[in-house]
Specification:
The chain is an alpha+beta fold. The protein contains 21 helices and 21 strands. Strands 2, 3, 4, 5, 6, 7, 8 and 9 form an 8-stranded mixed sheet that branches. A 4-stranded antiparallel sheet has the order 1-12-13-14. Helix 7 crosses helix 9 and helix 9 crosses helix 11. The longest helix is centred in the middle third of the chain and has 12 residues. The protein is elongated and about 95 Å long.
Length: 420
């Protein structure tokens, strides 16, 4: 049985703007200035036309349901401007030209910032839906009315047609509108970008846009992106936030990263944030801040897992599963005695493969490599290079464990361009 599919009709905003609007009596009512749309998922739907008219000083709003046909002109059921009202945007509505055209957006699929040159709509029996943003040169040429000329020249001289460069709306995140950034849709899209890519995007934006995008992120995404961001940008972003919200984000960061950031902030701002943080986290951060940045104590994190030698592999794995999300180091667990003296180390792989009832004292590697609190970065780098480990524990003069240095934290000191 044949299925009657609705024909797909695509329209570009550049081809709609400026069109004459013809009323039911054949009278020209005005020219299209912009479109309004409700930003719903999966595709925003056009709710009306904004047009200018010599008969009214302010722009006039034409509800989309009054549109009859869109050919060379736009035919509408309204007979005169008198029956139409001025523009009053409802909650969730935006002006498309004003909000998107010539504005920056994030292509969340490729994690790149793009400039919008045109918008593409799909016309269905249910309405007009925004389906793509055009970020290519072809869109720019279309807007200035030279697309047919360019196509003819390129085809005739080079047998080439300038390609479209569309981004599907589901991968598009506008940056210019605070209202669009506050939508849950925006938070979901931005959270899908890798933190390192999101950090690059933040660094490319101007100060105003950067702050707007960052403050639109959920706490966890903001913390992950902040860890990957240049220290100067970190300080700028946190300085623009109130201490309560800033503390929520910094609490989600690794302890070493949090300490580095707070150490770079103005004293008053840092103290305000520390007061808002949970006491145990704030105390750990203060401990790290008490050590010089170039020494082991300043690079380490105190967020790791340690167990007594009598703990079984089953017990250790149960604790690992419940606490791993909140610790910075998950590739190793450490074995310490009742006075926190370091006895050995176990890789996560060995822990998983061990017999469930086997005690950690029988599994651990006693040939554990460690550094002292005041060891310098060059000494620590030599240890990492020599033993090819991804983390090195830090002990005091009595061999009591104080923290652990993750290789990434060392890189941020000796090669900051690689560590971030």
């Amino acid at each position: 049985m044949a299925v009657n599919r609705e024909p797909q009709v695509f329209l570009f905003l550049s081809k709609i703007l400026g069109r004459n609007i013809i009323g039911a009596t054949g009278e020209a009512l005005g020219r299209v200035y912009d479109l309004t749309a409700e930003f719903v998922e999966p595709y925003p739907i056009v709710t009306g036309i904004i047009f200018s008219s010599a008969q009214k000083k302010n722009p006039v709003f034409l509800p989309w349901e009054k549109v009859i046909d869109m050919d060379q002109t736009i035919s509408v059921s309204a007979e005169s401007i008198a029956e139409l009202s001025a523009l009053h945007l409802r909650e969730g509505e935006m002006l498309l030209k004003d909000a998107l055209l010539d504005k920056q957006v994030v292509d969340t699929d490729s994690a790149k910032i793009r400039r919008v040159n045109d918008l593409q709509f799909l016309k269905t029996k249910h309405g007009l839906h925004l389906v793509h943003v055009d970020v290519g040169f072809r869109g720019l040429i279309r807007r200035v009315g030279l697309i047919n000329f360019f196509d003819a020249v390129l085809q005739g001289l080079f047998d080439y047609k300038l390609a479209n460069h569309f981004i599907p709306w589901k991968f598009t995140q506008p940056l210019n509108s605070p209202d669009l950034l506050r939508l849950n849709i925006a938070q979901n899209r931005l959270s899908q970008i890798h933190p390192a890519d999101l950090a690059d995007i933040l660094e490319e934006l101007d100060i105003k846009q950067r702050a707007a995008v960052f403050q639109a992120l959920d706490v966890e995404t903001a913390a992950e992106a902040l860890e990957e961001t240049d220290p100067k940008v970190q300080v700028s972003l946190i300085n623009d936030m109130n201490s309560e919200k800033a503390s929520d984000i910094i609490e989600e960061m690794s302890l070493s990263e949090a300490a580095d950031l707070i150490g770079d902030l103005p004293k008053a701002k840092a103290e305000g944030i520390l007061k808002e943080m949970e006491k145990d986290i704030a105390d750990d951060v203060k401990e790290l801040l008490s050590h010089p940045e170039q020494e082991a104590g300043g690079m380490m994190t105190t967020s790791y897992l340690s167990f007594s030698p009598s703990t079984t592999a089953r017990e250790a794995l149960e604790k690992f599963r419940s606490e791993a999300a909140d610790v910075d180091l998950v590739s190793y667990v450490y074995v310490t005695d009742e006075e926190e003296r370091l006895l050995g180390v176990i890789s996560l792989r060995d822990l998983i493969l061990a017999n469930a009832d086997q005690e950690l004292g029988d599994i651990m590697d006693e040939r554990v490599i460690s550094v002292k609190l005041d060891d310098k970065d060059d000494t620590i780098a030599e240890q990492f290079a020599k033993y090819a480990v991804t983390a090195i524990p830090v002990v005091d003069e009595n061999e009591k464990m104080q923290g652990t240095i993750i290789f990434k934290n060392l890189l941020e000191i000796i090669a900051p361009q690689l560590g971030k």
